[in-house]
Amino acid sequence: MKFGAFVSAAFAVAAFVALPSATFADAKQDFTLVNKTGYDISEVYVSPSKADDWQEDVLGQDILEDGQNVDISFHRSDKSCHWDLKVVYKDDNSSAQWGDIDLCTVSEIAIHYNDKSGKTSATYK
């Protein structure tokens, strides 16, 4: 399945400490998520690192198939640079998570699964 449309990840940040506007004036947290795991992903969550919950699945009804990618874009009002990422695999509902990703400096996240070690890793560009 090819994702041509951007997936909107709109999050409320009103509960967070306000930082000077100049710090995030040009902050752009949009990124491309690349699935290189060998498995399909049914859910993707992106939440501010300071949040206590995962909020909404940004894929909605879609599936991110192995070898495919999806562009995730943020609402302009989202000012935080540090976000957490969680993916859930379609086949067994297992998940993998990464924390405190600086999306103001990262434009692509590629996730990989190592069958031998049983571990999922991520590389950032």
Distance linking N and C termini: 23 Å
Chain-averaged pLDDT: 81
Overall radius of gyration: 14 Å
Poorly predicted tracts of residues: 1-26
Q: Strand sequence of the main sheet, in spatial order?
A: 1-4-2-7-8
The strand count comes to 8
Beta fraction? 35-45%
Gross morphology is globular
Helical amount: under 10%
Structural class comes to: mainly beta
Number of helices: 1
Biggest sheet record: 5 strands, mixed
Order of SSEs, N→C? Answer: EHEEEEEEE
Protein model, in words:
The protein is 3% helix and 42% strand. It has one helix and eight strands; from the N terminus they run βαβββββββ. The strands form two sheets. Strands 1-4-2-7-8 form a five-stranded mixed β-sheet, with no helix packed on it. Strands 3-5-6 form a three-stranded antiparallel β-sheet, with no helix packed on it. β5 (82-89) and β6 form a beta hairpin. The model is unreliable at 1-26 (pLDDT under 50).
What distinguishing features does this structure have?
single chain; 125 residues; mainly beta; 5-stranded mixed beta sheet; 3-stranded antiparallel beta sheet; 1 helix; 42% strand; disordered N terminus
What's the SSE blueprint?
Blueprint: E1 7-9, H1 21-24, E2 31-36, E3 41-48, E4 69-74, E5 82-89, E6 95-102, E7 108-114, E8 119-124
Summarize the entry for a quick read.
The chain has 125 residues and is mainly beta. It has one helix at 21-24; strands at 7-9, 31-36, 41-48, 69-74, 82-89, 95-102, 108-114, 119-124.
